[in-house]
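A quick word before the example. In earlier lectures we treated sequence and structure as two separate objects. From today on, think of them as two lines of the same record. Here is Retrotransposon gag domain-containing protein written that way.
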Amino acid sequence: MKKQMGDMKNSLKAKAAHNLDNLVHRADSSFILGIANFPLPSRFKVPPLKNFNGTKDPFDYLEAFKTIMQLQAVPEEIMCRAFPMGLRGSARVWFNKLESESISSFVQLSRAFIDHFIGGQRRGRPPTHLLNVKQMEEESLKAYVQRFNKEAMQIDRAKEDVTLTAFMAGLRKGGFLYDLCKDPPEILSELMFHRDHGYLTENCMALKEQMETLIRQAYQQMKLDKDKLRPMDAPLVGFTGDKVYSIGIIMLPITVETYPKAFSKTVDFLVVNCPSAYNAIIERPTLNRLRKVTSTYHLLIKFPTEHGIGEVRRDQIATRECYLTSLGSEGQNQTITIKERKTLVKPSEELDTIGLEDG
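And the structure line, produced from the sequence above:
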């Protein structure tokens, strides 16, 4: 019995020694001599490589490796020698079991690698999976876009029209969705432009950059139909960070004229409830649409019409009154009156002029 046990131990030791000897002598032996003995460039440094253990997508690892090595501008032989440095676990075992001098090019190595690990490739989700991505109640638009893009990356061969439809279907009801439905984007990049330049970016709005403003008092005086007011749940954020919540959006026609030179346009106004000396504020987006040229120094606006160049002049007194009203109580001290200079002390007798000589 002892003899049999001793024989088994000796057999295991011999087998282990044989495997170890094969491992030592097979170092880099998977490549032909032209690759195995190819000298490394003097300044070559192995870049940080993404590890691959056989459970991830082999295409991802291969493409990442090729991109990094191509940036190094190294020849094919160096790419072959550097390839196994990122292999771990079962992937390293696979490489070590390759036949001696069986790899003669990087293309051959890549094909053998993909053929062996193709079973570990991730399976993409169907395009209909994007229809399950919905914007949550308290989720900002920016967070929703990031989450949607992350899910879209898992879709194989997703068509752009399907992605657009799924994105819009997942949006909460509001001004941004209404804007997209009114003017549907044709491609995904156009939709992202709407997000970055539209009036709902990150659920905040910059008053002077996005939309014209109609003060609530003026809206009530106009006695407009409340059914025409579209809901808007995003706050206006001012220059100082103050927030004003809007009542909604309403589309109104505006006409600028000095008869017969007139120009008309339909504009979206954001109705806000805040004190103001103005009835409405027309900002740069509409001025650009009307192709207006403004001179604040001359209190003048010029714009092209079918009958020539039209002009609108502002009243300086009314402008000053609106400005002082907007300042509130502090506006009372904005005007300084410069009176005639007074002499505080008079000489007691007539003064003589005395000349001074040099030296």
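Notice the following. The chain has three domains: 27-120, 127-203, 209-331. We will return to this example when we discuss secondary structure assignment.
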